[in-house]
Amino acid sequence: MKTVAANRRPSRRETTLSWTVIGVLLLIAAGIAVKQSRYDPGHWSVPGVPGPPAGGTPGPGGNPAVPDPEMFAPQGLSVLGPLETFGPENLSDKIDGKAELYLPAGFQQLACRRFVLEDHPDLWFEVFLYDMGDPRGAFSVYSLQRRSEAESRADLGPFFYRTANAVFGAHGKYYVELVASAENATLLETLERFASRIVRELGQSASHLPELDYFPKEGLEPDSLTRIPADAFGFQEFQDVFTAVYRQDGREATAFVMTRPSAAAAESLAQRYAEFLVESGAKEAEVPGDIPGARALEWYGIFEIVFSRGAVVAGVHEAEDLDLARRTARKLFENLERNAP
Asked: Which residue ranges does the record annotate as region Disordered (predicted)?
């Protein structure tokens, strides 16, 4: 594969990942409501040919833990410049200072390269291969950044999708981004072939995260499954939390689950979360009587339910009315009875 000189480094759309809260009281109370805005690497583009990469450690002569993306390149491509690698200490140099999305999820190393189509020197793209430490970390980043206009690509893997000019996915412990310089059918087809080779040759198994099976399918919003690695819902003890959005009659609620070391640990954590809400100003509400140990709380017109089932802490977050919260919690509990250990 030949190497082509480069002229200009592409800009990337400004990235944001922030936890905001409903009003000053919610911020003071440690943020019950979680709102996120996500940066969109699937929509940055720069005309012309990119310049030399800035920052990072060139690959030649080194032995990065992450494979060089060139290993997976299909025929018909030339590389643009050297391999770049980044670690936790300088990841923000590459991704516009927004490494806080990746670091809590277990980021280890990033390897990236740019490629140009040999027959179309004005068409180029960049491949980002993130080692996230384990499949849970890879799924975290994948799920928290999923584009609203995403088109699932199950042929690549269960956690792959494309946008108009990019392909994103999680496979094993790796999170993958392939981002083109423009919206172009030839480029997009090349990105998909490249992604297919990564999946086939990376030596990782498709991820199976058991918590995803804990959510009932009825009413589940497509592609709403998410993993929050730390401080979910503003509660510091909520780590490794999976969420899913349910909608009914135009109203929305978020179900959540997390696995603890034991049933006793799960029960204790569920009660501490309920007390955290009470201390923040929430009021006790009518509990679902058919869910043992459940607590329901209301705060400024939104409803929370939390309970434990075996070693799983589960519940409903930010339901828009109590009836929706109770019905969502009941379906979640019944599904845990069937599918959780």
From this structure: 44-67
pLDDT in tens, 180-211: 999 999 999 999 999 999 999 987 776 789 99
- Percent of the chain surpassing pLDDT 70: 81
Contact between 86 and 56 (Cβ < 8 Å)? yes
Residues in the chain: 341
3-state DSSP assignment of residue 275: helix
pLDDT exceeds 90 at position 43: no
How confident is the model over 70-89, as pLDDT tens digits? Answer: 999 999 999 998 999 999 99
Cβ neighbours for 175, distance < 8 A, ≥ 6 positions apart: 130, 132, 137, 138, 141, 142, 168, 169
Mind listing the domains of the chain with CATH numbers?
3-20+42-201 (no CATH), 210-339 (3.40.1000.70)
Q: Per residue in 240-250, pLDDT tens?
A: 999 999 998 88
Separation CA 17–CA 125 (nearest Å): 24
The pTM for the full model equals: 0.80
d(CA 236, CA 44): 34
Q: Which residue has the higher pLDDT, 57 or 84?
A: 84
CA distance 306 to 12: 40
What is the distance between the alpha carbons of residues 164 and 174, in angstroms, rounded to a whole number?
A: 22
Cβ-based neighbour number of residue 5 at 10 Å: 9
53 CB-contact burial (10 Å; exposed 0-12 / middle 13-18 / buried 19+): buried
- Distant-in-sequence, close-in-space partners of 109: CB < 8 Å, separation ≥ 6: 64, 65, 66, 85, 86, 87, 130, 131
Instruction: Enumerate the β-bridge partners of residue 316.
Output: 255, 305
